[in-house]
Amino acid sequence: MVEHTVFTLSQVTQHKSKKDCWLVIDGRVLNVTKFLEDHPGGEEVLLESAGKDATQEFKDIGHSNSAKNLLLKHQVGVLQGYTFKNDADVQVASTEEPTKKEMSAFVIKDDRMPKYAALVEFFVPLVVAGSYFSYRYLTTGSSMV
Ligand code: HEM
């Protein structure tokens, strides 16, 4: 459940230490204290933005969709005066749904090949072996005459 408690920027500014680190991204007030150690970009960059609106910095890095979805996990509220967009904005960015569709389409296409391939695999060696033995039979028979 995403928190919608309203905070002013001066309230956010009070949380700018390593033990209590908040920042704002896209109007979301985020408590990233527990995320500092896990942030793939390092804790330093987060601490530099502590207590501030880091929207521009976050966008400048070109964070992935999974990074954008992670924002919800750390949200403790929203910034006062921000016209808050629907949470679905973040979830729409998820890559999970298209991946599932691509997978099922691939499975359907792939399903036809083995039946056809099995027939070819069965008959081609049979025809080759048959031709070989016919040839041997005919050539051996003619040399004996
Ligand atoms: C709660 C907020 C944030 C989350 C959840 C987050 C998440 C992530 C994730 C998952 C990555 C790995 C790459 C990717 O998937 O895009 C990443 C990389 C990075 N992040 Fe963040 N980030 C946050 C805030 C910030 C802020 C505010 C800054 C800068 C001021 C920043 C700077 C970076 C940098 C420099 C990298 C490394 C990029 C690279 O190696 O190419 N991040 N972050």
Descriptive terms for the model:
iron, five-stranded mixed beta sheet, 2 domains, binds protoporphyrin IX containing FE, Flavocytochrome B2, Chain A, domain 1, rod-shaped, 13% strand, 145 residues, 5 strands, transmembrane, transmembrane helix
Q: Please give the CATH class of the largest domain.
A: Alpha Beta
Chain-averaged pLDDT? 82
Shape designation:
rod-shaped
Strand arrangement, major sheet: 1-5-4-3-2
Q: Any overview of this molecule?
A:
With about 140 residues, the protein is of the alpha+beta class. The chain folds into 2 domains: about 5-90, Cytochrome b5-like heme/steroid binding domain (Flavocytochrome B2, Chain A, domain 1), CATH 3.10.120; about 95-145. The chain has helices spanning about 10-15, 45-50, 55-60, 65-75, 90, 95-145, and strands at about 5, 15, 20-25, 30, 75-80. Strands 1-5-4-3-2 form a 5-stranded mixed sheet. The chain is rod-shaped. The relative contact order is 0.12. Mean pLDDT is about 80; it is low at about 90-110. One of its GO terms (cellular component) is membrane.
